[in-house]
Structures are given as C-alpha cells and as structure tokens.
Amino acid sequence: MKYGIAIFPSKKVQDEANSYRKRYDPHYALIPPHITMKEAFEADEDEIESKIIPELKKIADETEPFSYGVYKVSSFSPVTNTIYLKVDPSEEIFALNEKLHSGSLPGDKDYAFVPHITIAQKLYDDEFSDVFGSLSMLKFDLQDNVDRFQLLYQLENGAWSVYETFRLGGE
Amino acid sequence: MKYGIAIFPSKKVQDEANSYRKRYDPHYALIPPHITMKEAFEADEDEIESKIIPELKKIADETEPFSYGVYKVSSFSPVTNTIYLKVDPSEEIFALNEKLHSGSLPGDKDYAFVPHITIAQKLYDDEFSDVFGSLSMLKFDLQDNVDRFQLLYQLENGAWSVYETFRLGGE
User: Fold this and answer.
1) Which position among A72, A83, B63, B108 has the lowest Cβ density within 10 Å, counted as fewest Cβ atoms?
2) How large is the average pLDDT for residues B155-163?
3) pLDDT for residue A110 is more than 90
4) Domains in chain B, start-ordered, CATH in brackets?
5) Which of residues 72-91 of A touch B (CB under 8 A)?
6) Which of B14, B164, B165 faces A155 most closely, judged by CB atoms?
7) Is the pLDDT of residue A171 over 70?
C-alpha cells in the first residue's frame, strides 16, 4: 500500500489554496490542500502498525508545535510547472522533515525539501505562463500553526485517506 | 465551523465503494467512502479542543475495536434516493453511535441510525430506478475491522478534512 505524510493547514489557508486549486490543480479532488512532509512510500500494514506508527509517535512527541507564514506564490519551473503557496522556511519545518526521513523510516529524500502548498500543476506551457504570471503578483499575509501531521494512504482512484493523526509535543 | 464524525473503512472496502461512487455519487470528490457516525454539527475551535476532543478520546478509550460485514446494497427510498452498501447492524456500531450522541456532545440525532456507506445519491428518479435495480442484485461478502473513528471539518468547497483520529480501546 502507498503511504504518505502531510500537514493540513488550517481551514483558512485550505480555503485560500482551494480557491486556486479548483481551477488549476487536477489533484483538487484527490486530497485537501496540504504540505507534503514525506513523499509516497510503499509499506505493508504490519510494518505500518508495528514499526512506522510508533516511530512517528516518537517524532511527534519530540517536536513542539510551530507556526509558519505564507506570503507569496512560487513555482518549480523549469523542473515542473507546479505553482505553489510558498511556506516561509523555518528551522522547525526543516527539522521535522529531517526527522521524517531518519532512523528506520522508509522512503528516500530524493531532492531538497521545499515546503509548499501546491495550487496548480500539470498545466500546459502556455497556460502555465499566463497563470503563473498573474498568481506571482499576489501578496499574502497568512500565519498558520502546525500542531499535528497525518499519515495517509492512497486509494485505487488516486485519492488519499487519512489513517492516523499525530499531535506534536505529546499530549 | 462544521464538524462531523466518520469511520473510514479499509482500503479494500473504500476501493469497492468508490467503483460505484465514481459514477453515481456527486460527493465522490468531497470525502473518501465512509460510515457517518455523527452528522455535521456546528462548533467553534475552542469548544472542539477543550470539550469535544477530550470527550471523544474518552469514548474511544472505552470502546473496543469491532468488525462488521457488508453483504448487500440498500436504499433510503422513498425518503431520499440515496443508495448504499448496507453495514450489517451490530451491537457495537449502535453502541458507538449512541455514545457519540450522549453527554455534552453537540448535535441531535434526528432519525434512527442506519449504518451505511453511501455509493449513489442525488440521482434523478429514472436514473435511480435503473441504478438501484441493478445494484440491488449485487451480493457482497466483505468483512472489515473498525479500530478508529475520525473527527473532520468541512471546507468552504464542501470537502471534508480530517482533524483528528481516535483509536478504539486506548493504546
């Protein structure tokens, strides 16, 4: 089964992201707006229960809640034409990402972590230029708190279903 | 904010339900296949954190994991033309539903609880007759375990985002 780990922003930020995703992101219906903390990895249910969830609990316990800001739109162009709300980099989110790729947790970190909330992807080149041209002019002033992350699994139709919530800082 | 409580079946059952929802359920993209345990209710975030989540934790701790079977399709017709996978009634699921409507938890129970996984809704009358005519011939033999329920909130676009997972039987 394919699993992934994400942070879901507050309703306010999700609603903002969805106002763009609705038009520009074909994954709009597959998962709510999110910050991917760990890309999709393969694991079986036994491994998830016996090994991965205890490890994620430990990481969550050791991580204090933190906040982040969103101020602008950016893009992965020319690598891909994905457009995203840029999550202002903070030590905390990098540290959490690092922990989620350490120890015995499966899944490689193939590239540098750029915390982001995707709002457009898989656009045609012309469309990308137009859309990014206008979105990149936008200024945001969103502040959001992270007090949990979620383990998800992917269904056959490509949609993601939340399996477990991990609260930061223990309880 | 609008909250609700649901059980998400295993991937196997979700995939089965989605094979019908894709064609017949306009809510297909708003939430994965689920058993609604508590209909949408209004609450503010403070109340959720200070009162409702502790109460849900207590309920989850006191409830042992249980299993259920799905053997056939049924419908709420003529009240609504919703078609669903019938969750074979069990004491455990009724007891959990009862607990989720007790104590100081908000939200009324407006009608008798019929545990189900919706696979079609908002069909035109003609379409309903056709679709239900063929789906009601189907026989299933699905067994599934419930070891958690989830608290969700609704986004402005109607989609549901998981806020917290509650494991049954404590940990």
Assistant:
1) B108
2) 96
3) no
4) 2-165 (3.90.1140.10)
5) none
6) B14
7) no
Cβ <8 Å between A161 and B32: yes
Beta strands in B35-136 (DSSP E): 35-42, 66-75, 83-87, 116-120
pLDDT for B171 equals 59
Predicted TM-score (pTM) of the model is 0.92
Asked whether the beta carbons of B166 and B38 are under 8 A apart, the reply is no
Name A20's Cβ contacts closer than 8 Å, sequence gap at least 6. A83, A119, A120, A135
Nearest-neighbour CA in chain B from A126: distance (Å): 28
- pLDDT tens per residue, range A15-41: 999 999 999 999 999 999 999 999 999
Task: Identify the CA nearest to A86 among candidates A96, A95, A73.
Answer: A73
Say if CB B49 and CB B138 are below 8 A apart.
no
Q: Check residue B109 and give its pLDDT.
A: 75
Asked if B28 has any chain A CB less than 8 Å from its own CB, the reply is yes
**Is B29 in contact with A32 (Cβ distance < 8 A)?**
no
CB < 8 Å to B159, chain A: 18, 32
Shortest CA distance from B11: residue in chain A? A155
- The DSSP code for A23 is H
Side-chain half-sphere CA neighbours of B72 within 13 A: 8
Other beta carbons within 10 Å of B99:
18
Chain A contact for B8 (CB, 8 A cutoff):
yes
The CA distance from A43 to the nearest CA of chain B, in Å, is 14
User: In what helix (H) or strand (E) does residue A139 lie, and over which residues does it extend?
Assistant: strand A139-146
